[in-house]
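[Meeting: bench + compute handoff]

Bench side (C.D.) handed over the final construct sequence. Compute side (W.E.) agreed to return the predicted structure before the next meeting so the bench team could plan truncations. Sequence as handed over:
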Amino acid sequence: MSWRYVVREANGTRRRVEASAFPLSVGGPDPDIPVPGAQTEEPLAHLGLSGDEVFVQPASGKVRVNGTPVKTSQWLRDHDVIAVGGARIEIEARGGDFKFCLDPAISIDDKKTDPPVIVGPPATTDTSAPKGSGETVSPVAFTPTPIAEARPRRPRIRAGAIVFWVLVLLLGSVAWALFGVRSVAFEFDPAPDTYHVEGPPFALQIGGRFYAHPGAYTMIADKEGYRHLETAFTVGSDRNQEVSFFLKQLSGQLVLTTSPAEGAVVLIDGKEVGVTPLEPLELERGEYTLFIRADLHHDFVETVTIEGKGTIVELEATLEPAWGTVTFTSEPKGAMIRVAGSSYGPTPVDAKLVEGTHRYDVILKGHKPYQGRVHVVSGTAETVGPARLELVEGNLVVLSVPGAVNVTVDGEYAGQTPLTLSLPPNQDHQLELSRAGYDSVTRGVSVSSSESQTITITLEPLIGEIELVVDPPDANLFVNGEARGPAHQTLKLPAVPHRIEIKKDLYEGFATEVTPRPGFPQTIEVHLKTLAEIKAASILPVIQTSKGQELRLIKPKRFEMGASRREPGRRANEALRTVELTRAFYMATTEVTNREFREFRSGHRSGAVQGHNLEIDHHPVVKVTWQDAAAYCNWLSEQESLPAAYVNVGGKLGPANALTTGYRLPTEAEWALVARHPEGEKLKYSWGNALPVPAGAGNYADATAKGFVLTTIPNYTDGFPATAPSESFDVNPLGIYNLGGNVAEWVHDLYTIYASGRRNVLQDPMGPAEGEFHVIRGGSFLHGSVTQLRLSFRDYGNKARSDVGFRIARYLE
């Protein structure tokens, strides 16, 4: 069991000790258990704990348990007495407490007196170790000093000789008796009324000490109120010895009588000892908690003190009644009553119940259980009831065709079929079954108590017509997920909601929900769109970058690039060739401006030309290389998490293996398509196919450029000696600004000269894979000759110029 450890000091003070505080020091500096008068630098002993068992172990002092010296360690039990230093510690282990009771009496060690020195045989070592209660001392081997035998004499013996040898024998015996004995001091706890020693002869007791030869002896002692002591001990070879004896008190008796006399459960300190009537209980000295409980009575609790020493304590315990009488009744009679697991009955019936509130059940076959509560007052009688018991309901299982039909019983909704109903017995009930699209059904029913019936009711459907007119007519029809053949047909369906689906490969499906109306035919017309139509409708014609730049969708087509040899101003690199673009793309409506480029590279400067500022925010950026333009495209793609169109190869940017949907420069073919074929017909100039240049045609080398441009356009003024705003002048039919003038533009392709070839179609051309120069397309504010004004004019370069900028493009997908 688990103990509560308590130290009771000499002044009566009690204090609790936790199990975790063990081992406890006895005596010494800062001891757990102080020993009055013992001034030592080390503890005299330690008290240890192993599981729930307590033991004592000597340290710097001598320790005795019940008078027996302890050399190593000793388990401790109730009534054990430890002698250490100048005190006695009595053990009390009962009632859940393990007490160390300190008594500052003088120890046995302090009362020793030196015994007289008697010369005897050589000492031997005592190897015995008293243990337990100290009632056993182990014997040691001893060989007495031999006495020399007399030599044989002549048969003639004189009287004087006989006397002489008798004296010699007597003197030897006395010498053996005197010089072979050991002095033993007896210590008793407590002192006995009588004691004596049994064992070998020639043992004496003189002045409180016992003189005897080494050997085994028995101590017999008695004291009133204590148990008879009869224990063996051994006299060893040491001249002066000490043996301690401990007398145990007799137990006390508790004679218990109870009222009521029988059936009461008795517990001592929480442990059940039996059911009354009981034989007298043997109890050790101490205080005990007596607890008695009996059905229908209050518990009895009292503290009992047992003095021990054979004394008898008589106790009469009267338990107060804690019950009242309850009479249970019911209609009809004959029911059983259940209260807290006990059954009473049949009703009417009296039941004795302990005071308090009880829940009870009234049970009768064929009737519904009844539950109630009753409050019982001790010593009173009362009647409960009658409990009116209702007959058990009958069961009605309702099935229907179709299923999931709504059911009402006597006007109240009860659920959907299949449904099990519990109905009051022997009564008429009205059932109504209804479902959308079906005629309702009403039926009367009746069930007996505990009876189970099953009925099945069929509802007639209400039918309506749905005519489907579908394009294309061979599309497939599904009604509520079930295939019904070609979609172009007339359906006859119950008047409930139906899901109509029409599907065909490569077409967008159609789905709707419709409820037929009996007597009112309905028509549904459906035109399925092809997936290509759906996709085309979803494409945005205009998009914007994250920086607000506008790009317009350009659809791919086949067209002709270059110029005829007979065309005035034509150059040799303008060979006629047929080109086909297969991918739709977006092209920016304006050239990239200074403000937009400085978001990417804040330190860029477009500079000036002949004193005319080229740094204005909304004017096109110039003095950028093709590499600068490609880097800007990659940066813009990164802002929108698009794949880069250009990759770094050998420290320079070049096209990715397959052009992505990221931002890039328009290819030369894309630029030519947008500039020369905005409405299908090939243009020679941005304004048309003839000279002179009309007013407002664009920003070219006009009269204001004289002095720093060799060739200017006579009689033409556009109002801008250098660059103009990116959105200046009119857009072409595709909504694109300044493809013919303002600044020339870097395009995606490396420069090469193509051979004439109208028959061989170039599909999605992007220029050669390698080269030193990139293509530049379009006129600028420095161009005024017929050659430069033409939209087929091709230039090239690899350095930045004050009249060259760029615009962005990207593929649709």
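W.E. noted at the follow-up: The first helix runs from residue 159 to 179. C.D. will use this when planning the next construct.
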